[in-house]
Amino acid sequence: MNNETGSDGKVWDAQRRAAPKGEIRVKGVVAYLEEQGDQTRLTYDDVACSTESGCTSWEKTILYTSAKYPSRRLATLSLTKEQYAEIGENLVMRLLALNGKIE
């Protein structure tokens, strides 16, 4: 089982994304870029926060996915329509899955 300790010292079960009894966890996805020479990696991580804390601090729960793109094409917004569609599709699918909304 994959458990992680949050900044509050509580252990979260990253597989079930469970919260201690009585707490509500808000789940989301964060995206960031990592330069790797002439390639740039776009990475998505799952994140969660506790409504008990007012969601002022988000914690990474698990890596979702990543993809590499040529840095120059990414910087000049020259990816293909299919690549942009894949980026958006990955984001929306993951948000739906995290929040139990896929039928």
Short summary of the structure?
This protein has 103 residues and is an alpha+beta fold. Helix content is 22%, strand content 41%. A three-stranded antiparallel beta sheet has the order 3-4-5. A two-stranded antiparallel ribbon has the order 1-2.
Structural descriptors:
single chain; elongated; 2 helices; two-stranded antiparallel ribbon; disordered N terminus; 41% strand; alpha+beta; 103 residues
Mean pLDDT: 81
Summarize the biggest pleated sheet.
3 strands, antiparallel
> What fraction of the residues are assigned to beta strands by DSSP?
35-45%
Ranges with pLDDT <50 over ≥5 residues? 1-17
What general outline do the C-alpha atoms trace?
Answer: elongated
Gyration radius, rounded: 16 Å
How many domains?
Answer: 1
Structural class: alpha+beta
Total beta strand runs: 5
What is the spatial order of strands in the main beta sheet?
Answer: 3-4-5
Number of helices: 2
State the share of residues found in helices, binned by percent: 10-25%
* Pattern of helices and strands: EEEEEHH
Distance between the termini: 26 Å
Q: Can you put this structure into words, describing what you see?
A:
The structure is a single chain. The chain is of the alpha+beta class and 103 residues long. The protein has one domain. Helices cover 22% and strands 41% of the residues. It has 2 helices and 5 strands; from the N terminus they run E-E-E-E-E-H-H. Strands 3-4-5 form a 3-stranded antiparallel β-sheet. Strands 1-2 form a two-stranded antiparallel ribbon. The radius of gyration is 16 Å and the shape is elongated. It starts with a strand and ends in a 5-residue tail after the last helix. The N terminus is likely disordered.
